[in-house]
Each structure stands twice: as C-alpha cells, then as structure tokens.
Amino acid sequence: MSAEPKWRVVHYETEEGDCPIAEFLDGLTRKERAKVLAQIDLLEEKGPNLHRPYADLLRDRIHELRVRMSPSGYRVLYFFCHRTDIVLTHGFRKQTARVPKAQIDRAKRYRAEWIGRHHENA
Q1: Could you tell me which CATH number the domain at 8-118 has?
Q2: Is the pTM of this model over 0.90?
Q3: Are 63 and 78 in contact (CB under 8 A)?
Q4: Which three-class secondary structure state does DSSP give residue 26?
C-alpha cells in the first residue's frame, strides 16, 4: 500500500522575480491573510483531494482555492506540477458570480511560462 503523496505549495515568480501571490497576500488585512493562509495549509494537506466548497477546477488545469470572507470572498488560482507541487499563481477579491475569464487567462499564462521555464510536462 503506497502512502499518499505529500504536497508542497510553491509561489509562482516571474522571470523578473515578481511574485503575484505574495503581493496579493501582502495587501490583505491580518485577519484576511490568516484565513487565506489557513486555506492554503488545507490545500497543501489535501492536494487534489480538496473539493468544494474549498476548491474547484475552473478550466485548462487551473484550479481555484475558495476563501469565504464577509461580504465577499477571495480566490487563489493554482495548478499542479510534478505530482508533488501546487503552484499558486495569484489571488484576487471575488466580486462576481463567476471567476472572470481574464483571471483564468492570467493563471494560464503564468502556468505556460512556468512550464516553459522549468521544462515541465505538468
């Protein structure tokens, strides 16, 4: 019987060294940051076994971490890589019923760039 894989959360960084997820986290209040980080810890523990209401697959291998905060919520977009890594791309305040296409497209660009730079087949 094989053990479940251990997941590792990785922050996406651009080639220039910018880190959109860190910038998002830095812009939150202490209470908001604590809640988002708790959800990230849960994601790291459960990996792809974390489902709604905490996480969901959006499209094209991009997933969302769903963080409920009153009056709105936050989303952290991510993808899986190496069968062990969860790469967090960026986060934003959710203000519409659906995740905006532009946010998903941004995560897809980050994923493609990450894979190209790390020569991955994720």
Answers
A1: 3.30.2310.20
A2: yes
A3: yes
A4: helix
Q: What is the token pair recorded at 39?
A: 């959800």
Q: Is the peptide bond before 5 cis (omega within 30 degrees of 0)?
A: no
Handedness of CA 67, 32, 23, 87 (dihedral sign): negative
| Span 40-93, pLDDT tens digits | 999 999 999 999 999 999 999 999 999 998 777 999 999 999 889 999 999 999
Whether the CB-CB separation of 76 and 32 falls below 8 Å is answered with no
Separation CA 20–CA 9 (nearest Å): 14
Task: Say if residues 43 and 55 touch (Cβ distance below 8 Å).
Answer: yes
Band (39; pLDDT cuts 50, 70, 90): very high
Sheet containing strand 55-59, edge to edge, reads 8-11, 85-94, 73-81, 62-68, 55-59
DSSP for 78-100 reads EEEETTTEEEEEEEEEE-SSS--
